[in-house]
Amino acid sequence: MVQALEAVMVALIVLGAAYSVVTLRAVSQTHDKPRANLEKLAADSLTVLNGLVDANGTMLDQALTEQYHCSRDVSPSTTTCATGRADNITEKLQFYLPPGAAYAIAIDNGIQAREIYRASTPAGEAVGASYAFVPAWNFTFVASELSCYDPGMPLNATLLPIAHARSVNASRVVLTLGATGVNVTANATGSGRWNATFAAAARPASGTLVANATAARNAGTFPGLATYGSCALGATGNATVTALRQDSLTLPASAPIGQAATLRANLTHLAAVSGATLLSSNLTVYEPIPDRPGEADTWIPATTIALGSGSTPSATWTPPDDALFGAHPVVLRALMQAGGVTYEARLVGILPVALPSGVVPLDPPYRAVLQAWFGDWR
Questions:
Q1: Distance between CA 306 and CA 49 in Å, rounded?
Q2: How many CB atoms neighbour CB 296 within 10 A?
Q3: What pLDDT band is residue 54 in, cutting at 50, 70 and 90?
Q4: Residues 111/354, Cβ–Cβ less than 8 Å
Q5: String of DSSP letters for 24-58
Q6: Which pairing describes strands 341-354 and 326-338: parallel, antiparallel, or unpaired?
Q7: CA 122 to mean position of chain CA atoms
Q8: Percent of the chain with pLDDT over 70
Q9: Domains in the chain: ranges and CATH
Q10: What is the Cα–Cα distance from 149 to 4, expressed in whole angstroms?
Q11: Residues 114-158 pLDDT 10s
Q12: 244-283, pLDDT tens digit by residue?
């Protein structure tokens, strides 16, 4: 009964906001726009977006995630990110806001806002609004140990189930080989990591890894996709994997915003693989945000740090004031060369970004921020 009443109340709030958006937008076209009305229009636009819900969550959450990809991806989608804008959010805001209005969208972590889209800024009245939200960033980060495999090698991958930007206690993690339907159940290895292995005979030479984790206390599954390639490594491939599993990536327990975190690696065994050369290595810290739906290897990098060619490299990273909180997947890529083939050997870890106090928030205090400019202010 209580849940039913709460649902009715939420529906009434959203309907009221939607009514305000429509009526204020109509009023705006006659240039009768007291500042309070403009601010309410901006605030109600966010309320309506948060009230539109489907199986994937709220439209506000989905639209902000899509726009984050458009603004931060190494290679933004050519279909959903026209001129740097995510259609999901920009089309709706262009409908809600008066004709000719410009706007900016940001995610505020409580310390500093990170702008993820800005239209042109006209001369005129500016108003702003924000809306508190907890993003449903639920996914399984997945990476194979090597970037490519010799046809006779088994394939092993590391999986990190993450929900609401924190590592979760998954009850089951399954890895599937793309369209083949062949799957294996991963094994938990501690500290939020899972491993899955495909025998050489059970996998295509190259393909897509489809991860799905089921969390003990969360509904649904957490997807994630990554690709692997094929290359002729011979016995050097297995020797590389054996060496990789003896090497290590050491990360701090957390990385507070504004404070330098030291990330270290020991690659002495990789450097000693017979017939292979360790060329260089780098570290990529990824945002705690899902990849683009149905698109492999579209994780968003927060930073990539070159480590050079040494066998015991280290680096520091200082999360900026506008950083996202929570579990950031980290991948160390050791660039190897054997018999003219260049390939990656990878170590995977998790680095939680914390408040300046050192506390990692369970539900990050985000606010969606909308700033709008009305060029025909009178």
A1: 40
A2: 18
A3: confident
A4: no
A5: HHHHHTTT---HHHHHHHHHHHHHHHHH-EETTEE
A6: antiparallel
A7: 32
A8: 87
A9: 2-134+365-374 (no CATH), 139-354 (2.60.40.1930)
A10: 54
A11: 999 988 766 666 788 999 988 888 999 999 999 999 999 999 999
A12: 999 999 999 999 999 999 999 999 999 999 999 999 999 9
Provide the 8-state DSSP code for 8. Answer: H
Give me 38's structure tokens: 């403009």
Alpha-carbon dihedral sign for residues 181, 185, 190, 195? negative
Q: What letter represents residue 61's amino acid?
A: D
Give the tokens for residue 284. 């990529």
Task: Name which of 180, 167, 162, 181 is nearest 224 in CA terms.
Answer: 162
Cα 149 off chain centre by = 27
268 within 8 A of 248, measured Cβ to Cβ: no
Tokens 């899902």 locate to: 290
Collapsing DSSP to helix, strand or coil, 120 comes out as coil
Q: What is the mean pLDDT of residues 173-187?
A: 87
Is residue 58 packed enough to be buried (19+ CB in 10 Å), middle (13-18) or exposed (0-12)? middle
Return the structure tokens found at 234.
């011979």
DSSP 339: T
pLDDT at 170: 81
Q: Dig out the tokens for 366 from the structure.
A: 């985000």
Are 143 and 331 a contacting pair, CB within 8 Å? yes
- Token duo for residue 255: 């990385």
The residue among 143, 139, 198, 208 whose CA lies nearest residue 347 is: 143
pTM recorded for the entire structure: 0.88
| Nearest in space to 163 (alpha carbons), one of 365, 9, 363 | 363
- 351 phi/psi in degrees, rounded to 5: -125, 105
Closest alpha carbon to 372 in 47, 99, 110, 107: 99
- Integer angstrom CA distances of residue 253 from 294, 337, 360: 32, 33, 10
Q: For tokens 């975190």, what's the residue?
A: 261
Residue with tokens 């997945």: 142
